[in-house]
Here is the input.
Amino acid sequence: MVGQLGEARRCLIEALCSGGLVELDAAEVSGVDAAGVQLLAVFRRDLLGGGGTLEWIEVAPSLRERARSLGLEAAVFGEVKGR
Amino acid sequence: MSSEGGRLQRLQAQVFGTFEDETTEGLERLEHKLLLLDAGAPRELVDELFRVVHTIKGGAGSFGLAAMAELAHAMEAHLDGLRRGAAPTPEGVAALLEGSDLLRQLLRAPADTPRETTAGVRERLAHASSGEAADHATPLVGFDVTLRPEAGLLRDGVDPALLIDQLAALGSLVIRPDLSAAPALDHLDPDALFLRWELHLEARTDASAIEGLFAWVDGCALEVRPAPLIERSPTAAPARSTGASPSGSSAPPGGGEASVRVPIGKLDDLMNLVGELVIAGSSLGGGDDDQPDTPERRARAREATARLSRLTRALHDSVLRMRSLPVALVFNRFPRLVHDLSRRLSKEVTLELRGEGTELDKTVLERLGEPLVHLVRNSLDHGIEPRDQRVAAGKPPNGTIVMAARQAGSEVVITVSDDGRGLDPPRIFARAVERGLVAADAQLSASEMQRLVMAPGFSTATVVSEVSGRGVGMDVVASTIKALGGELSLQSTPGQGLTVTLRLPTTLAIIEGQLVRFGGRVWVLPLALIAECVPLEPSALVSLCGHGLLYRLRGQALPVLDPCVGFGVRAQAGGGRLVMVLDAGGDRVALLVDEVMARQQIVAKSLEPNLRAVDGLAGATVLGDGTIAFILDVARLRRALPLASPDHPTAREVRAREQP
Here is the structure.
């Protein structure tokens, strides 16, 4: 949520710097707003732009629903890989 | 959580509280107006209904109450059909009423209430619309919509997902997000919004309706352009889910401190008064102490003090008015209640509301709803006869219930009248004997009969109906009204109807008091209950066969109460020379007092939390000199105090006069 994304951004920058394959598990996400979805979309854009790969382990329905509402489902998830 | 997050949550809680208040008021207005919706309803009525639902929809959408927003949208769509010329049908009105009920429930429901909750009502609305508006369907049109939120939109508590959801609820929506303005992750301010959207909407609406959805949002540029249709669908059903609310933490915060919305005019009055008070205060305190004390200075000081006193009183009135709300807020729920119950009981009943603008203290008003529901249910179930009985009795086939409110001094009088069968004294008596409340050979006066009706659990209904007749009614009403400092009385004419009168104080805290002295102490009588005050005329005192005293006043014999015995204070020699005639719950009584002192506004404090409830005393107050004075509970004095004994000093005078 807006005002609470600093830590998430720091973790994502670390993941971005490590490059290669990044796996994200968003099963526990319970509340997300447009700022959260935007952060994930920018992360995926930058990761893929640098030649990396993003794989989603699991996605909470609320996150997917919010991304869909904003038209950002493809930008955030591309193809979702379930377990 | 960061302090920024905390601030946002507090802001959202505050804004949501306002939304709750406004929506509750809107729903009451909606319900009231829906009952007036028929084939001949004026266009203005339909427009008003549309506006109310539209406002609710906008608010619900902005708080992520997706199910509520979607239902409001379906209701709005139905009303829009009526605005375009379709005729209202009973089916449509019933579906709208059902929708209104459901909106009320959803207002209290979590934000992630499933959309399916409202599916049934939405279907009925759509079905009703298809019947009403077959020939009036708005054509499906296309729009390109550009949405450019400012970076700070989220910090202001507005989530663009909710705005997009509102658009999606209008029809079919294609969303094209644009992330190109967002900097690289290591330069991204995670709380700022860089997203833009190009949207294509196909809906049976117009550009102004789309713009209207965004009217409440600051910080989001919107551009709406007509566009060709890129897909054609038979209806304008939403193209995708609008259940966009995240669960858990984003549920809108409700509850919090109760609030009153104050019209700006009342605040302006208050500001003016405070301004005048400051001026008056400075004129009083601005004097030069070195100046000699002249008659002119003293006159100016007296004038300023009098002015301050007037202003303080006006200020008090002004603040009280702010706590006051029109009884319409309670009355407006009754057309619906009567509409539904009369159908269920297969009776035809018209409800008339009068004096809805009369204002009452918010606390009193909030507690008045339940007693009034009891009274109206009683009238519908027990009072108004079935159609055939009414016709046989020579009455109009339709029954009438009148709810009226009016200001009477410092009280508000509310009456609920019906033209039904009235109370049935033989039946009440028989039921009271059956329940062992009175002896079979007892002779009951009208007021005793009235008290029986208000006895706990008393009901004459032979069948416990769904509506009333469980024997929990009049006693609950009477005790609630009593707790509010009010009085309840019944006026029944067998075969003609029943009127229940509630007399309520406009405020619970401050009363206009008359200070009196007896038994060597100062007491307070509520000014509104004093009918008159006359010097004692000994010849008007009549001994009641040696058991008590009556006072004859203009042909009326008033029971004389002795407060000294009742409250355990010593009667003063030579006292009791003034007769206060009091209006004690419909009966007039005479109270002998020694001295009538000043009138003043007093702040009533309850005795119960500090001492205990004392019959005959309504509370206490602290006077200007610091002494405590008890406030007499005039309405209950007749029961709390004994009749003045023939041994009363004044009675002795009577005896002396009667004996030769």
Summary: The radius of gyration of chain B is 33 Å. The first helix of chain B runs from residue 3 to 34. Chain B has a mean pLDDT of 79. The longest strand of chain B covers residues 399-408.
